[in-house]
Structures are given as C-alpha cells and as structure tokens.
Amino acid sequence: MNQSRLVIEAGKAEQHYWLDLWRYRELFYFLSWRDLLVRYKQTAIGVLWAVLRPVLTTAAFVIVFGRLAKMPSEGIPYPLLVFAGMLPWQFFSSALSEASNSLVLNANMISKIYFPRLIVPASSIIVALGDFFISLGILAAMMAFYRILPTWHLFLLIPFTGVAFLASFGAGLWLAALNVEYRDFRYVLPFIVQFGAYLSPVGFSSSIVPEKWRLLYSLNPMVGVIEGFRWAITGTPSLVYWPGFAVSLLLVALITLTGVWYFRKTERAFADVI
Amino acid sequence: MRDVLAAAPKRVWSRLSRKTLADPTREEFWAVQNLSFEIRQGEAVGIIGRNGAGKSTLLKLLSRITEPSTGRIEVDGRLASLLEVGTGFHPELTGRENVYLNGAILGMTRREIKSRFDEIVAFAEVERFLDTPVKRYSSGMYMRLAFAVAAHLEPEILVVDEVLAVGDMEFQKKCLGKMEDVSHGGRTVLFVSHNMDAILRLCSRVIHLAKGTVVDIGPTPAVVAKYLASQNEQSAVIEFQQTSPSDSLRRSAILLKAEWPSSETHSPWTIPYGDEISFVITVECREPIRAAELGVALYAPTGTEIASSTSILALPDLELSRGTHHFRVTYRGLKLVPHSYSFGVGLRSSFGMEDYYPKAFALDVVQSTESSITKVDGFLGYVVPDVDYALS
Lengths: 274, 392
Description:
The complex is a heterodimer of chains A (about 270) and B (about 400).
Chain A: E1 5-9, H1 13-23, H2 25-39, H3 48-68, H4 78-105, H5 107-112, H6 119-145, H7 157-181, H8 184-199, H9 214-217, H10 221-234, H11 242-267, H12 270-273
Helix pairs in contact in A: 2-6, 3-4, 3-6, 4-6, 4-7, 4-8, 4-10, 7-8, 7-10, 7-11, 10-11
Chain B: E1 2-6, E2 10-11, H1 15-19, E3 30-32, E4 38-40, E5 44-48, H2 55-62, E6 72-76, E7 79-82, H3 95-105, H4 110-124, H5 139-151, E8 157-161, H6 169-184, E9 188-192, H7 196-202, E10 205-210, E11 213-219, H8 220-231, E12 237-239, E13 253-259, E14 270-272, E15 277-285, E16 289-299, E17 305-310, E18 318-320, E19 323-331, E20 339-349, E21 352-366, H9 369-374
Parallel strand pairs in B: 5-9, 5-10, 7-8, 8-9, 14-21
Antiparallel strand pairs in B: 1-4, 1-6, 2-3, 10-11, 12-13, 13-15, 15-19, 16-17, 16-18, 16-20, 20-21
Helix pairs in contact in B: 3-4, 3-5, 4-5
C-alpha cells in the first residue's frame, strides 16, 4: 500500500497541482458537457438563440454605425465588417462573463469537493466556444451571400481565436478570483462588457482612430483580434495595425500569466471565503 | 493505510472582518489545533463532537478542500470524501446525466461509472425516471439517487460527513447497511455523525473532538458514553422558551418550567440507574381550561420516542383555574439503561393543543451499583423490563 502517499502540508499544494489538473481532466470534460447541455434547456427555440443574438446585435450595429453614422467600410460589405467584429467580441464577452461568474455559481461544489479550481473557469469558457462555432456557421453563410471567396487567410482565424480565448481566460481568472471575495465584481462585469462593445472596433473599422492614438487604442486586446478576424475573412492585411497587435499580445500574455498567478494564490482560501 | 495528522490547525478569519478590505482588527480563529491521531488500514473510525468542535474542518483538511495553515497529514491510498450527497447535481439534467456528472465530481472515471450504472440505478430505485430532469423528482428520489452514486464509490479511504440523514427510515436503513458493507469490506472509513446509533454500529474506534482538539479517543462504546454524559449540563430548574412561535398552539395555558428535585449526591437531571425518575412541571393558565391533559414523551439518545404518557388516566376531566399549577410526574418502575435521554412536554385542553416543547429537557441515566451487579451497562435497547424467567 505504498502506491500513492499523499502529504498535505501548508503551502505544499503547489507540487501536485499541475499533475492533479491532468488527473481531473474528465471532470473538466463533464463540467463543460453539463454547461453545454444546460445552456438552452427549457427555451422554446433552443439553440436558435445562439444564432439570433449575434445576428440581431449585428443588425443594430449596421444600422447605427453604417446607415446613420455612415462610417467607412474599407471596401467590405458593412454587415460583414460588423459581423467579423461581432464574432470574436461576443465570444470574448460571453467567455469572460461565464468565467467570472463560474466560481460563485459552483460555490457548492467548491466548498464540498477537492479538485483543481482552475477547471471551473476553464470549462465555463467551452460554452462560449460552442456559441462561437455556431456563429462561424453564420459567417460562412454571410460570406457565401456576399460572394467572398475564402483564401488561406481563413486559417488565421485559429491563432486569433486563440488570442481571444487567452484574453478572456486571463481576465476571467482575475475576475473570478476577485468575485469570490468581493462580489462587487459581479456588478463591474456588465459595465466592462457593455462599454467594451463600443470601445472595441465592433461596429466600425479601427482605421477611423487617429494614427497617434492607435497604439494606445491597442491596449484593448480585442482591437488586434477584431482586426485579425477581418483580415482573415477578407484577406486584406492593411486592416491589422501590427505595432498595436504586438502590444496586445504582450498584454494578453501578461494578463493570463498574472491571472493564473493570482488565481493560484487565492485558490486555497476559496472554500473558506466563498 | 496510515493517516497521521500532526498538529494540523487551520486558520479561519472571522466572517465579519472578511467583509472589510483592510481591517487591523481581524480576529484570529483556530478551527482545529493540536490534533494528532493515526488510523490504520481497514479501520472504521467515528468522529463526534458538538457543533463547532472542528469535525467538518477536519474533514475538509483531509479531503484537501481547504489547506492547513500548519501541520502535516499523510494519506496512503486513494481518498474520496463525501461531505454531502448530490454535490453538483444539476436540476435541469436528467437522472442519467446527473449520475455521470456526480460520479465525475466524486472522482470516478467514465468507465467506472458505466460499469456500475445499473447497480446505482437499482439501488436508488429510480429506473422509471432516468430520463426525467431531477428537478421533477420528489425530494426522496433525489436524495436516493444522490446517495446511490456516492455509495458506489470504491476508494481505499472514505471520508463521510453526516450523510445518512437522508430519505425515509427505510432508505436510511439501506444506507446504513451499505456503509456497514463498505467498512467491513476492508476499506478505511472516517465517519462524522451526530447519530450515535450509527456510530455504534459502524465504528470500532471513536475520536471525540471539542474546541478543535481531541478530548478522547478509544473504543466506541466507552467514548460515546462519556461524550453523551458530558453533553448535558443543566440547571435544576429549566424554564421553557418558545423559540419559534407556532400558530397551531393556542397558548392560553402555557408550560412554564420543569424542576428537578434537589439531590445532594447527583447533579440535576442525572440519576443513577434504578432510581425513580420524578420531576415537577409548572403550568400557567391565563384563562380557565377544561379537560386539561399533560403529556410527556421520553426519547432515546437517537431521537426515537420510547415511552409516551399523559395525565388523563390519573386525572380525568381535569379543570384548571386561572393561575399556576404544578404537576408532579413520576415514572414508577421504569429502569432505563445508562444513556442520555430527552423529554418532550405538551399540554392540551378541550380547545386543542395549548403548548408543546418537543425537546424540553434531558435526563442522564448513569451507572450505579445496581447496574453493575445486574450487568445492564452494556445492554442493547433502552428499557430494562421487570421480567420473570422460569423453567416450567
């Protein structure tokens, strides 16, 4: 009976943590599966919501920014310009919201069962990823409608989605951990999401931002991602402001690393505080 | 399996100070301190103690839900903890889906759950409702399914917190039986419970905790008896206080207090085995009542009612005027096995139920010369009857 001796000591949890994360991968799978299953339960139109939400928001943005404000469209059909921004933005914002609230929503599990807590926010993002894939279908339909042929650039969606994933995961870790102790963040979050939709170039092209402000503007990590999405879809590289994107990448890396650090630091007290 | 817990205290900030951002008056509180013990493979060990003694904190430390501030715990073998049944059950998911989800949460792999699925469902007796969302289950079905998943965990070490108090009596028996199988099956079990019957049935050793540290550790019957005796420190006069006002009580006549006759040899509400049980109940009538009837129920330590009686036989058609009245209640020839018992008191009149206290006061029956001569100390059951045996 010496196959697995576990030693529990103050501050020792670090050692088994990453190994445990691997051991508990099935739990990650099951929690994601649960969230996906539950997502559209007891709704009349079910998964259609995943289609309606981005389409309706896109329509509103097209009317406000395209028709009324007459923003430049960079030679892309305006609805496609907006949808290419809406796609990563809605993924980011819903992933961020899900991740931030995930710990508090699973408080009961956290106070009764041991498992690496990182699984909770990570698995909650999978739901947003599900909606994202449905939106990709809408994108394909729109591209067909506007007769835009996809090029190899389309594969660029993968790394840019990765950046959006990391950005929402990193920020989500921060907010989730803070939310455990200070529920204030539950009220901060809707503001971030609401303002973010207007601060990010979702409804317009980021080229309208004056050149001298663009680097500062790129501090919003979603700016680079949205530009990247438009590039991937239309194949026009001028849409990406590279110095800004480099800054975005650095920032995302920083947020993710510090997010993991802060989460790990506060994690051991979650069960007591939540 | 060896489980060493050497001085594993746990620092928990007080709830109040947690709300303020930086509060210099943060109060320190050690939920568990100076606690050491060892549990060998295959042992079933009970943990008892009052609320707040640190039992749950200890289990949380063992199951790694919270980290100790200092100290060391060594665990050999796969440990599963069951601090609650049905953790992570999702109301929108079906019974089938919840079995898989809950199993994963408890640490089973998909293959393990699959191979035990039929057993789990049969144990829970919910075959017909497997594809119904559990939010439509009755609470009994819900608990049965939840316990069934937990009961089919097969770890080397099982840590269990007060989870047997689920479902109806029938199912509780089944759960207790399942737990017995587990502990007799060579697995190590740590079991927290307030139910002394369950502790006595399941555990060979018991740890008694108080204020976060070990008070007593040893063979089950001895530790449990001492614990029960230490629990009741009551004064001779017990004044009843209605804590939760009930609409169903008229309270035009109320139960005021219970009084124990003074004794020089024993503390109040404690009698040596074989002595007569007698006390006085005081009633106050705010208006005259007719057909007054005082009822007294006697409960075993487990909460089972073992003897009820009312005044109606001795005092039929009793009329009480406005003012206070004293009833002397005497149990003649009732010999109770040394244990801690409790009493419930109720008062009824022609108008209906006047006043009622389900747990009014407690009585400790302690060992006496008589009990040691007649060897009733280890008896099962609670009442020692006056029986004749004769060869014929």
